[in-house]
Amino acid sequence: MAGISTSGPGAIRLREGAEDVPLVLNADRSDDERVTLVVTNTGDRPVQIGSHLHLPDANAALDLDRAAAHGFRLDVPSGTSRRFEPGASAEVQAVALRGRRRVPGLQRGKPDGGALDPTAPEED
Hints:
Layout: E1 34-41, E2 47-50, E3 62-63, E4 72-74, E5 81-84, E6 89-96
Antiparallel strand pairs: 1-3, 1-6, 2-5, 4-6
C-alpha cells in the first residue's frame, strides 16, 4: 500500500486483498446530497476549509454560492482540509451534512440554534 496513509487524520485502512478496489468517499449519498461549487479566495492570505465545516460559514474571503452550499460540507476524508491560495479558484465537491443537522456555535446569535433545517423533527 505504498502512498496510502494508514494512520492519523484521513487514514485509509483497507482489508487484505482490497488494495485494487476503487475507494469512493460517501458512496451512499444520493445526487440530492451532492453539489459542485466553485470557490475563489478573494483575500490576500491562504484559507483552509476543514472536512466537516458547514460551507456557508467559511471565511468571508472565500467567494462561493453560499445559498447552494447551505447544509453541505466538503467531500474530503474526515480530518483533512482543502487549502485555497489567494486569488485561486477551484471547483469542489460537497456532500450534505447528516445526523441531527445542527451546526451550533459558528454563527453567534442565530435564533435557530444552528439548525440547518428548522422544520426537521428533532432526533435524539
